Amino acid sequence: MLDESPARAAQAILIAAREDVLDAQALLGQVLLDGQGIAQDRPLALRWFDIAARRGHVMARNMLGRCHEHGWGCAADASLAARHYRLAAAAGLDWAMYNYANLLATGRGVVEDQLQALSLYRRAAEMGHAKSMNLLGRYMEEGRVCPADPAAARDWYRRSAEGGDFRGQFSYAAVLTDDGRVDEALGWLRKALAGGNLNFLRVASQALSSATDPRIQALAHDYARRCADLQRTQSM
After folding, report:
1. Which of 38, 44, 176, 234 has the fewest other C-beta atoms within 10 Å?
2. Could you tell me if 60 and 49 are in contact, meaning their C-beta atoms sit under 8 angstroms apart?
3. pLDDT in tens, 158-177
4. Closest to 41 (Cα-Cα) out of 51, 49, 31
5. Are 181 and 173 in contact (CB under 8 A)?
């Protein structure tokens, strides 16, 4: 309904949220955050996430963390974001495990703890979280706070790529390229190009431009063009 008639869906969600339907309260926070079918209002989104989180909605708790981490509707506060992520992760939410692990891995809002970050990435990956699979693969490839295991890293990259994560697709393409399987790598690089965000495309285009294979170098130009298009769109 949000895809076919966003405004109608948003009004239905608003009515249900006001009638204390818990999932609708969490979803209303999301549509207000995104401006999907309703005027974007990040402070109001934060309020609805808070209402739903206080009533036990775990994804709403995770989204409170996202808001506080990125300053959506409030001042950015990584330590407060970490608190919300930790609570949602303890409740078993894979996205919260991933988000909390990101803070632990970088020491934002918490004391850096690579071992705990790795443990959370592993738990989320084993639950099927594609982004965590890619980062678990990176730890294993680099032997960071764990024994290096290139074969396991490759498998997690593959699973992440197949799960739809654009960074996982890029990582898997890299190992395929190292194996000389460039045709397969190009397919995954094109998928990553289609789904990647601005920051990823900016870094990836630079990395691809130094490739020795001319087909990959040509794809680097596509990454750069897509990056420029997204920059123009976001500046409008």
Report:
1. 234
2. yes
3. 999 999 999 999 999 999 99
4. 31
5. no
Do 77 and 48 touch, CB atoms closer than 8 A? no
Q: CA 175 to CA 184: how far, in whole Å?
A: 10
Give CA–CA dist 78/66, Å, rounded. Answer: 9
Residue 183: predicted pLDDT: 96
* In contact, 40 and 34? CB cutoff 8 Å: yes
- What is the rounded distance in angstroms from the CA atom of residue 204 to the CA atom of residue 189? 10
DSSP-derived secondary structure letter, 38: S
Please report, for the chain, the start and end positions of each structural domain, with discontinuous segments joined by +.
Answer: 1-56
Tokens of 161: 């790529």
Nearby residues of 234 by Cβ (< 8 Å), 6 or more positions away? 198
**Is the whole-model pTM more than 0.85?**
yes
Distances (CA, A) of 138 to 4, 157, 175, 225: 39, 8, 12, 27
HEC secondary structure over 200-211: HHHHHHHHHHCC
